[in-house]
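Please, structure for the following, as tokens.
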Amino acid sequence: MQRRLGTLALCALVTACATTTDRDTTLTRQLVGTWAAESIPGVFVTFRADGTVFSHGKIEIDGEEFDYRDSGTWSVKDGAIHNVVAEAPDIPGLEAVELPYVSVEKIVSIDGDEYRYVCPAQGCTNTMRRVK
């Protein structure tokens, strides 16, 4: 009986891992493209199929407008987007971070034109809309 339970537990674990991997693969495919950040108008994020990511746009800080661009790599693991920002501008008024900077964004939902994610570090939920 104990051997049977152990085998059953192992099968459940393998199935759960396969499901997570399948889901991550599906999410990765769905995310490829350019998205507009709802919380920061004028900023766009492009996830490329080759695993690179870049953000670009204009941001306003204290009434002054700046061009913003960053780049790095991305992947989906356990239903979350893992971004590694390798290059980013030094903009007055923005908190400086040491590069490479890693962010993890848990995907809440995704369809063809919109995805929502939670930033565990900040505790906020954001929405991105696909750019046509």
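The chain has one helix and eight strands. Confidence is low (pLDDT under 50) at residues 1-18.
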